[in-house]
Write a structure and sequence with these properties.
about 400 residues; mainly alpha; Growth Hormone, Chain: A; globular
């Protein structure tokens, strides 16, 4: 593999742990495994209505199936970040890709809620490995001189894949045989390409340093806690808002707005994450503080639009809410990753990424599940309204924390 120049030494990180600078094309290619796994993360979204019809389960059960993904993801984050920093990115990413292929097989043949839960659990484990080891690998390949590019591409790879999955599933399920299987067969091909990419990725071996337990709640080095807190304060409400759209969006479309089209459901999720991708390129030159405050404001505006959508049965307002939610997640995610990339040495970056995502995905799993069961009890309008109010308050609090924190970037 061609290496253009030696990597400069990073303070506090052994030289062997810092990869040499690779050609720019490899920074882009390194983001592909993140995209491929995140295609799987949301590919099931438009298909829940079919499984709900064929298997039979409530909106609350649907959100529990969705939450199994969060459980697997958080469980993976307790291990994958530390392991990746100690033994390398590839030994974590390659098994994760294999587990993602297994999840595809279970999804394609699922005939019970238990099977859906298992597939979502395995998907979450694979995604947990990717958001820690995979996103750190993009930064490693980018090198110290391209940290902001690494953060941008890693973040955009995540949200682009998350949007492509439901769009592919919606279109393929409406146009080809095997509506609940075809997209997962296509995804196996995408994962195979990711496997080859990881094998050839120009990454140096880590020094094997680091102390403490291998399985633990991920954390950041001393002195980086402020950056982690500010990132979570905005990223968590953003990803929780998109999780709600993914888990209950199809029910909103069918129950309130009168459409059961899987293409429409998939397209709504795609547009949401397209907004998350585009906004990151649009704001990449701004100060991190401005990006984070913009993310918080976008989530607040999205929750207002969500309440208006469910009370007026407006598909346009629901689409606006999804776009604003996507923009909020995108800016929160980019801001959080940028803070960590600027403050955390490469030898601890995967664990730091894991800590950011644990802080984001815990509410992203809990609040939509609560909203789903609340909707079963008081109706979808009441459940969605309660969720929007709670999350809007949390997002506003995160924005205020960024705006008032002394020394915020």
């Amino acid at each position: 593999m061609t290496i253009t120049r030696p990597a400069p030494e990073v303070v506090g990180v052994p030289a062997a742990a810092v990869p040499a600078t690779a050609p720019t094309r490899w920074v882009w290619l390194a983001a592909w495994p993140v995209t491929a796994v995140f295609v799987l993360s949301n590919a099931a979204t438009p298909l829940y209505a079919l499984w709900q019809r064929d298997i039979g389960f409530s909106k609350g059960t649907m959100t529990v199936v969705f939450a199994c993904y969060i459980v697997g993801l958080i469980g993976s984050l307790l291990v994958s970040g530390v392991v990746s920093d100690r033994v390398g990115r590839k030994p974590v990413l390659l098994p994760a890709l294999g587990l993602a292929v297994l999840a595809c097989g279970i999804f394609a043949t699922a005939t019970s809620v238990v099977a859906l839960m298992a597939a979502r659990l395995f998907t979450g484990v694979a995604v947990g490995a990717v958001v820690s080891a995979g996103m750190a690998a993009v930064t490693d390949v980018a090198g110290p001189d391209r940290k902001r590019l690494g953060a941008l591409l890693a973040s955009c790879a995540m949200v682009l894949g998350a949007g492509l999955g439901p769009l592919l599933a919606g279109v393929l399920s409406e146009t080809l045989p095997g509506p609940t299987a075809t997209v997962f067969l296509v995804e196996i091909g995408l994962l195979a390409l990711a496997f080859v990419t990881v094998l050839r990725m120009p990454l140096s071996q880590p020094s094997g340093g680091g102390a403490g337990a291998w399985i633990r709640l991920p954390k950041v080095p001393r002195g980086s806690g402020r950056q982690l807190f500010l990132g979570i304060a905005v990223f968590a409400p953003g990803i929780t808002s998109t999780s709600f759209v993914l888990s209950l969006g199809p029910s909103l479309l069918s129950g309130l707005l009168g459409t059961t089209s899987r293409v429409v459901a998939g397209a709504m999720a795609f547009v949401m994450f397209l907004a998350a991708t585009g906004v990151q390129f649009a704001v990449r030159g701004l100060r991190v503080r401005v990006i984070l405050m913009g993310g918080a404001g976008s989530v607040v505006a999205g929750m207002v639009a969500l309440m208006a959508a469910v009370w007026t049965s407006s598909v346009v307002l629901l689409a606006v809410a999804a776009i604003l939610a996507g923009a909020g997640q995108g800016m929160g995610q980019l801001g959080g990753l940028s803070l960590l990339n600027s403050a955390v040495p490469g030898a601890r970056l995967a664990e730091a990424n894991a800590a950011l995502n644990v802080g984001g995905y815990v509410p992203a799993g809990a609040l939509p599940v609560a909203a789903g069961y609340l909707s079963d009890g008081i109706g979808l309008t009441g459940g969605a309204t309660t969720f929007a109010v709670v999350l809007g308050v949390l997002a506003a609090g995160g924005g205020m924390a960024v705006a008032t924190r002394d020394g915020a970037p």
